[in-house]
Amino acid sequence: MNLDAEQLRALAAVLEEGTFEAAAARLHVTPSAVSQRVRALEQRVGQVLVVRSRPCRATEPGAVLARLAGQVALLERDAAAELAGAGHDEAAGAPTRLAVAVNADSLSSWFPAALVGLPEGVVVDLRREDQDRTAELLRDGTVTAAVTAQAHAVQGCRVRPLGAMRYLGLVAPAVRDRWFPDGVTAAALERAPVLAFNRADTLQHRFAAALVGRDVAPPVHHVPSNTAFLELLAAGLGWGMASEAAAADALATGALVDVAPGRWLDVPLYWQHWSLRTPTLDDLTARVVRAASTSLR
Amino acid sequence: MNLDAEQLRALAAVLEEGTFEAAAARLHVTPSAVSQRVRALEQRVGQVLVVRSRPCRATEPGAVLARLAGQVALLERDAAAELAGAGHDEAAGAPTRLAVAVNADSLSSWFPAALVGLPEGVVVDLRREDQDRTAELLRDGTVTAAVTAQAHAVQGCRVRPLGAMRYLGLVAPAVRDRWFPDGVTAAALERAPVLAFNRADTLQHRFAAALVGRDVAPPVHHVPSNTAFLELLAAGLGWGMASEAAAADALATGALVDVAPGRWLDVPLYWQHWSLRTPTLDDLTARVVRAASTSLR
After folding, report:
1. Which chain A residue lies closest to B98 (C-alpha atoms)?
2. Are residues A149 and A57 in the same domain?
3. pLDDT at A278
4. ipTM for the complex?
């Protein structure tokens, strides 16, 4: 099946940018030109490719073609850079765009180190995503790679282990004295307020269940910012889990203490990426593996 | 129109939690009981209330009823607390849940101070949301209040100004020397890489346009974490805007400098909340206004 490259690029831009208008701005054409190209591609393959919602989303066949478009773009840009001779410089034209989904804790701790000294001509499009959404973004071609706790390879992707992030149960000393005078008993864990990052964050629940051997259902605050999370733990809003790296300063000053000394949760992280070899993607993989190896267990 | 309180609670839980299963877990009933209640309510009002997607979303009439349900719940809980005599204590039963949307920069800087010493029996459900989504969440009853740059009151809400957050254009010294040897010219701003928080973040674009009097279209990295954003600015990935509070340390150490000394963007912030007087909501408003007044201009 021969597909029109311009139509594929229009499809990918709509799904990446979320609207026909934003896709048009990126491609330097009118929204109606984008719309025509996507419609033409839909007629060519005989299937609806884009759900016209806000933001636009891929249908199943749309996801297959969006990913194809992204892979072709990556290969084309690397080939252009090679032809230009000087690596990824201005001669290669538009910058190579690497879309990567990263879980929030990695993004606010070890992941940025992987991007230090990134070659000019490469731009990163990071997405802070929960677990369950990562696989979908890889499948539908929205992202090229992901840092995720999901060990099972998404179809068409390679996966490699990065090491484990260690999470500690943390609490301000005053909160420990108020809610846990007898330690982390089931009764105390049932009543003491907990901080969770958001609804998808089950770390606290798993840790508590592991400590006392059954599920507990305490009052839960949702605080979806790593900075705010640590600040509100220290301010005594409740107990919660943070990575040992994020908690190091607060533990050193005594602002936070272990709620259950000697206990922790290790969460293994994985690098999933399209099974496609290009210099840009290989370089990113090497950077991510290196940064992870200095911070994860 | 008399509406069944249990059915309203089921509707609100489905929209807040996103799935019938999670709503059932919160209400301690089976998913099929939740489904029956929502269906019964839909038959009662003769309209579809919930789009059965993942996550579930409110239709227009669903949003009206979800907000009603949230308002009734807030009033009921405060009344129960008053009856119990001792304020928001365990006698009042389930904790009072305050869902609040907060823009990312506020959430990682001044907003947590508003929650220090929050009364027991109140749990916060914070959502880090972009501008354009905040109004929708207020309208459909998903959040009770929001910190937002939107000055225009959402229907049924009150709005009050909180002050302005000042943003500076920041860059690592080496990046300034490399890309801006002649200062922030239009040609330099067209080529120098930029960091933006995500696609909804137009600060950098507006700042550059204000500096040179026309739009520029440089290569853009998207870095949706305040911690990672500052770290990658300092590592030299590009220039970008950060609030003066967030940038203070890096400016003091010289890790970052002003890309255009003496220029900034002031973004006024507003507190929007349901126009409903309850002690819990009044207390939250007072806390937010107080925290904002010590940090914003």
Report:
1. A221
2. no
3. 85
4. 0.84
